[in-house]
Amino acid sequence: MTLQELKRRLTIPVIGSPLFIISNPDLVIAQCKAGIVGSFPALNARPAEVLEQWLTRITTELDAYDRAHPERPSAPFAVNQIVHKSNDRLEHDVQMCVKFKVPIVITSLGARADVNDAIHSYGGIVLHDVINQKFARKAIEKGADGLILVATGAGGHAGVQSPFALVQETRAWFDGPIALSGSIATGDAVLAAEAMGADFGYIGSAFIATREANASEAYKRAIVDGSAEDIVYTNLFTGVHGNYLRPSIVAAGMDPDNLPEGDPSKMAFGSGGSAKSKAWRDIWGCGQGIGAVSDVPTAGELVARLVAQYRAARGRLGLAVPERRAA
Q1: Using the 8-state DSSP alphabet, how is residue 156 labeled?
Q2: Rounded to two decimals, what is the model's pTM?
Q3: How far is Cα 95 from Cα 270, in angstroms, rounded to an integer?
Q4: Cis peptide before 47, with omega less than 30 degrees from 0?
Q5: Where does the pLDDT of residue 323 fall: very low under 50, low under 70, confident under 90, or very high at 90 and above?
Q6: pLDDT (0 to 100) of residue 86
Q7: DSSP string, 57-101
């Protein structure tokens, strides 16, 4: 699938980011039907055997939708693979992606040529998320097709560079697909990402506060009530710096303004690990864009809002709306 072919399948150039614990088949299917790339971390399907069940359901339901709506088929979906040595499920999960010919695989926390080769064996696309030029160049050298630039303000594990600098410096040497992550929660922000040189906006936190998302009502309400000032950047919980909701840190009995440093040597992103479980279950990952979130809609309703905002923003600038799938 080429970049242009992918964009023509979308109602708006957006990839829904994979949300640990939160992304599930309900959310992914709703996102794809609405016309954006829906995604989930392979590790959300537990135990490992459940991944095949999820992939069966997603592919079956989207195929049925496409047959019923040939004029506006669903967007492709993506699976996120954590390519870190602590992930003891990686080989199994990649095999499942190959079996189901998952259209897009998002790789994180490491770049491996063998994983990329496996996805390329059936024509799949690999996007790798990075926070700086060192990791970006390494990912492309290892065979990734595109990059997800994780700028400051992104939810979960995030970098510290301005999106302007990150996109500009990457575009100086890379002309392939780029998705931009970091405080994107409106259609206007998606257009801004394109104006900077990215091909897609990468949206996560706004989808936590949707009805399909596997997040507690308290988590969703904290996003609705929160703003950029409620986001805390720390490496305490996983050993990797990330952005988290202040109220969840307070509820865990800690002072968000006086957190100790974490231990990078104790990173745990595989199938076990109490630190990881606590981080994402009790300490809620979230980005700085949540000031735009005012309620808890369905994923389809959220995408419709993004599309309307995107078209309005283009209209204000006198720009035509690119030919894409009808909403």
Answers
A1: E
A2: 0.93
A3: 17
A4: yes
A5: low
A6: 85
A7: HHHHHHHHHHHH-TTSPPPPEEEEEE-STT-TTHHHHHHHHHHHT
